[in-house]
Amino acid sequence: VTPGDVLQLRAPTNKFLCPLAANEYGIEFQSFVIQDYTTKQTIFEVSRDRPLAMDTNRKIDHNDPDSMRKIHYELSEDFLRLPIVSTTLVFSVGHRPLSNFRMIERHYFRDELVKSFDFSFGFCIPGSTNTWDACYDLPPMDSALIDDMINHPYETSSDSFYFVGDQLIMHNKAYYKYLREDATAQCKSYEHKYGASEKFLAAKAAALPVDPNAKAQAKEVKSSHGEQTPDNIDVSKSADAKAPGAKSIATDAKLREADVWSKESDYL
């Protein structure tokens, strides 16, 4: 199985394309983090110190020898709407040098390809622990497709293929469940779990509606003193000034409305 072979796949594989023993380089994954690229807000994290929570509604076959190569993610619905996400993968290497390490990911909803990613790491020295940072430029999806993915947990899946040169050494599968955010909650589910970054808080502040009474009071103070001081800044303007990133997110969203992706033929 070569990189060219997996890049031609149009649906999830029915089986793993290499045995566990193919990982002759002793690669072990230590941790994996997903963030919103713009705000640096963590939306998912898993590591040996922070294992995945078990979904009690999902049956697990403990007799399946390939169970360690299958992972089930629970992600916020916000993940589906982000234009760019960044990931950080920490992995260790055994006693052999690793050259031309490459990962190809094929993502599907049901049996249709929705996106594909291809990353190269390069060289790893023997016995080293390495950090692999990657950015995913996600195709925009229409609301109907997003709702479909949310309403059908674990029917969104991916195949991840890891190569050294043209040799397939690992093949992992992932299944995704997307959780709806509570619009009445004071914070996002991932914000509660992982904390909030400064840029994320600034973006939230910029998105809040301006209190007209506060704005009127600010103007009244300004007119009485004749100049702006820290106590009489126009809050409707200061919110944008604190979060330029949030402003760019809104602009990007408007630009993407004219090019919403909904099916494979629009992406490839």
**Sheet with most strands:** 5 strands, mixed
Q: Give the low-confidence spans.
A: 224-268
Q: Name the structural class.
A: alpha+beta
Q: What proportion strand?
A: 25-35%
Written description of the protein model:
This protein is α+β, with helices and mostly antiparallel strands and 268 residues long. Helices cover 26% and strands 32% of the residues. It is built from 8 helices and 9 strands. It has helices at residues 3-6, 143-151, 189-194, 198-207, 212-225, 235-242, 244-257, 264-267; strands spanning 28-36, 42-47, 70-76, 84-92, 98-109, 112-124, 129-137, 156-164, 167-179. The strands form 2 sheets. It has a 5-stranded mixed beta sheet. Strand 8 (156-164) and strand 9 form a beta hairpin. Helix 4 (198-207) runs antiparallel to helix 6 (235-242) and helix 4 crosses helix 7. The radius of gyration is 23 Å and the shape is globular.
Give the arrangement of secondary structure elements.
Elements: H1 3-6, E1 28-36, E2 42-47, E3 70-76, E4 84-92, E5 98-109, E6 112-124, E7 129-137, H2 143-151, E8 156-164, E9 167-179, H3 189-194, H4 198-207, H5 212-225, H6 235-242, H7 244-257, H8 264-267
